Amino acid sequence: EDQVTQSPEALRLQEGESSSLNCSYTVSGLRGLFWYRQDPGKGPEFLFTLYSAGEEKEKERLKATLTKKESFLHITAPKPEDSATYLCAVQAPAAGNKLTFGGGTRVLVKP
Amino acid sequence: EAQVTQNPRYLITVTGKKLTVTCSQNMNHEYMSWYRQDPGLGLRQIYYSMNVEVTDKGDVPEGYKVSRKEKRNFPLILESPSPNQTSLYFCASSNLRSNRLAAQETQYFGPGTRLLVL
Lengths: 111, 118
Known about the structure:
The structure holds 2 protein chains of 2 kinds. Chain A is an all-beta fold. Chain A contains no helices and 11 strands. The radius of gyration of chain A is 13 Å and the shape is globular. Helix content of chain B is 0%, strand content 48%. Chain B is built from no helices and 11 strands. In chain B, 36% of the residues are buried. Classes of the chains: A mainly beta, B mainly beta. The A-B interface holds A 31-32, 34, 36, 41-46, 49, 51-52, 87, 89, 91, 96-99, 101-104 and B 4, 31, 33, 35, 40-45, 48, 50, 56, 58-59, 90, 92, 96, 100-104, 106-112.
C-alpha cells in the first residue's frame, strides 16, 4: 500500500527564516510526486510535479527536490503570505491514477 | 476563467436524508475525482472517473455513489447519510496524459463543500 508521511506537522517561522518541509513516501514505482498549497477554507492549489530522483523545481521562494525515498519543499526567506498548509501526494502505476496524500505541514510565518 | 465549482458550499442535514453535491468543470478535463478531508487523516479519494460513463472506487467509497453522464459534471450522491460522513469534500479535475510518466497533469480542485450530518 502506498504511504506518504509529511513532517513536521506544523512549523512556525519568523519572516525571512528559511526552512524545509519533508515528504517521505513508500510506493511501488513512483509515477509522479505532487506538491500543493492549501489555504484555510479553500481547495488545494497545485505547486509542482516531480517525476524522477534528482529533479528540482522552483517557484518564487519555493523549491522542491526529489530523491528515491523523499521530497523536500524548501522555503527561502518566507513571507507571511507563505503561511498555508503544504500537501504532498504521490501517484503510482499500481494504483492507477489515484493520488495518495500525506497529512500536510501547517506553516505559519510571523512578521 | 478555468475553474471547478461545487454546490452547495455548506450543508447541514439529518441522518438518512438523501443528498447530492454537484461538481462542474469548464476545462474539458477527462479525469474527475472526489475527496474527503478529515483532521488527522488528510485527503482521501472517494471515487474517480476517467471519462464519461467510466467511474471507479477510490480508498473510501462506502456510502457514496457517483455518476458521469456528461464530461463536465461529476455529482457525489449520499443515498443515506450518516454522521461519520461529516467532512469537507473536494472535487477535482485534470487532463489525462498517456505519454508521460505521470498519467495526470495538474489537478484543479474546487472550493470545497462542508457537510454536517446530524
